[in-house]
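TL;DR need structure tokens for one chain.
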Amino acid sequence: MRKVLFMKKTLAVVFSLAMLSTACSTAWMSTLDSILAAAAPALTNILQIVAVANGQPVNSDLEAKINADATAVKTLAADFAKVSSGSAPGVCQQLQAAVSVYQADQQLVLQVAQVSDPKTQTKVTLLSDLVAGTVDAITAVIPSCQNAAASRSMKIAPLYSVSTFAAHYNSILVAPTGNAAVDAATRKMRLHQHSKLVQAVSFGRLQ
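>> reply
TL;DR here they are.
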């Protein structure tokens, strides 16, 4: 529990510090993509765990909504990075609104993430808490809509570590619950800690 709380608190701090560091002007986009690439699957995994634990089909509508809303955030971020200075404030506000929608998706997951098995419920709660911290990370890395033309070129360092998030998530994910169906399913849901390129050159040894 302490690890999860520490992870949630430090994610926002790390990204706030990143705004003051030096890197290329589009580093925030790469950072945001990295967060979503880990956070969206991490969130949909929770729906799958709940479905297995309750012996019910996965909530496919909510799963599709999460993926669509995450894609919308990525698309608007790319648009914001390249639009003219006159259009930038409007696109920035659309981007922030899209992040709010994605955050609301997490609340929807919490509403349906209820199981009768106490150990599985603890797993779901810990995973949900950890994923919730990624919203703060996303918000922190997006440039402010105020003076948007200047803020888009702000030099930041992509300090977000997908491998660190994935390691914390996976350690909670695979912790035994005693529910055979859940434990079998979660072993197949691990998040990748390395890029596809690293996985390829390591012949799959590094995931």
